[in-house]
Amino acid sequence: MEHFKNQNNDYFQDALSDFMHDAASGRAIRHLVDVGYTTAQIMKELDYPTPFEKVRHTVTRYLKESGILLNQLPDNARDMRTLWLGDMTQEALFAFLAEQIKRNGEKNSYISCPFGMTIMKTDKKAAQALSMLTAREREYLDGIDWGEKRMYHRLNRRMLEIGAQIAKSTEEIRFYFLKSGEEIRTDKRQ
After folding, report:
1. Could you give the residue ranges of the DSSP H alpha helices within the chain?
2. 76 to each of 34, 67, 69, 187, how far by Cα in Å?
3. Any residues with CB less than 8 A from the CB of 64 and at least 6 apart, and which?
4. Under 8 Å between Cβ of 14 and 54
5. pLDDT digits (tens, 9 = 90+) for 4-59
6. What is the pLDDT of residues 51-63, one digit of tens each?
7. What does the alpha-carbon distance between residue 110 and residue 3 come to, in Å, rounded to a whole number?
8. Mean pLDDT of the chain
9. How far apart are CA 126 and CA 129, in angstroms?
10. How far apart, in Å, are the Cα atoms of 30 and each of 6, 59, 98, 152, 153?
11. Which of 173, 148, 150, 145 is nearest to 161 (CA)?
12. pTM for the full model?
């Protein structure tokens, strides 16, 4: 019975902490995400001292709630046709993807994000690709709780720039255009 009381008390304390965090910082965090701030930049703007992990959790949750970050693609993504782009410069890839976003709309355009997966931490080529990013791009990726699974981020301007830079360095990066039903790959055809 004592264990049950402690569990309830822990649950209550966690719920109260989440409520206080949301009241003190949640609205401000969501607004700052909307205007393009990274988690680290948000930390500097908050009046109420909040641990990085708590802000990161709030940012990630908000990105998921708003459809910017998905745990999985919609069911209709299983029937996509795959296009391999072959050897293309970073500039040409950026222009091609920008045209795809224009045709499909940003809300129907996603990039696969294996950034929390072990492969991105152990693959030298992938690690080298991430090192090519600017400090602000890397800061953005570090400010999201990717977990240990592949996730999908809406292909907005920031992720288009990141994706075009690293897509050629790892076969883990793919682009999905839901309206046209296309999966774009830049790795070698298997």
Report:
1. 2-21, 27-34, 39-45, 52-65, 90-104, 118-122, 124-131, 135-142, 157-166
2. 28, 16, 17, 23
3. 70, 71
4. no
5. 556 666 655 555 455 555 555 788 899 999 999 999 999 999 887 888 999 999 99
6. 899 999 999 999 9
7. 45
8. 85
9. 5
10. 33, 7, 26, 19, 17
11. 173
12. 0.84
Residue 111 tokens, joined: 């990039």
Question: How would you label 140-158 residue by residue, b for 16+ Cβ within 10 Å and e otherwise?
Answer: bbbbbbbeeebbbbbbeeb
The pLDDT of residue 95 is above 80: yes
pLDDT at 119 over 80: no
**Contact between residue 63 and residue 69 where contact means Cβ atoms under 8 Å apart:** yes
State the residue for tokens 């910017």.
Answer: 68
